[in-house]
Fold:
Amino acid sequence: MSAPAPGHPALRGLRAAGDGFVRLLAALLGTLAYLKARPKRRPAPRLGFAGAWEGVALALLAIGLVASAMVLVDPLIPGLRPRLNREFVAFADRLTDLGLGTVILWPIGLALLYVLALQPRLDAMGRRVAASLVARLGFLFASIATIGLSVAIVKHLLGRARPQAAFFLPGPNAQLTFDWLVWKSSFASFPSGHATTVFATAVAFAALYPRARGWLLALAVVVASTRVVLGSHYPSDVIAGAAIGAAFVLGMVKVFAARRVVFAVGADGRVRPMAGPSARRLGQVLFPKAPGAPDGASGGAPLEEAR
Structure:
């Protein structure tokens, strides 16, 4: 079979995807470099904890829950899926995709690329609005992508057998089988990448939209639980992934807040999201008025609807 011609649509698509990935990676590294160079300010941000010792106590609590689940609950999981209702399993199979990094990160990444490409054509006010949006998208992308990629590597290095693989392993404690550096999908159970990603996403959006915190965390719990229903992970994997994802994003909130990017810090150290541009202003910037269009119209939805 001959290779496609240089101008073949498939090659153009691959080249465009590669360019997009490189730009996303550059945007991620640029965000981290910007944060490193930006000076910290006082007072230091505080996220509900009185100090470092409370954070250590929470970390020990999470470790205790993971260890307890490994010993007491995980042995009950191998072979669970065939005993569950088919419709319930099918629903869980559809819902679990909400925890995929690609499902979450590609829309954020493409939105980030779109705003970055739009910036040079904007006026001074438009660039300020775009910069505000880029900062928020950068926070989401850096927080979710960094921990998601890290956990994807770590779980393959640890090599814990997934429940469906452990079901066929000999011994009374097959759920504790770790095959380091095996680098197989069937031995990449701990921690759960889906749980890490979905909890990182929920906490990151909850930091930006505190009023939706309860709904976001409830959805994260449901999506993470589907990993156990489907037999892809143990409860301990999900608990560990949820704790890691949430803790990392909270740390990123403190990093951004300490530099007064995206988040503001009150006199008592409490962190709150900065006020962003209105929906009307975003509509004007993201969907510029087409040439010859009447006043009040934009390339996208009418501005009255954008309110």
User: Anything to note?
Assistant: The first strand starts at residue 263 and ends at 265. The first helix runs from residue 9 to 37. Confidence is low (pLDDT under 50) at residues 296-307. The chain has eleven helices and two strands.
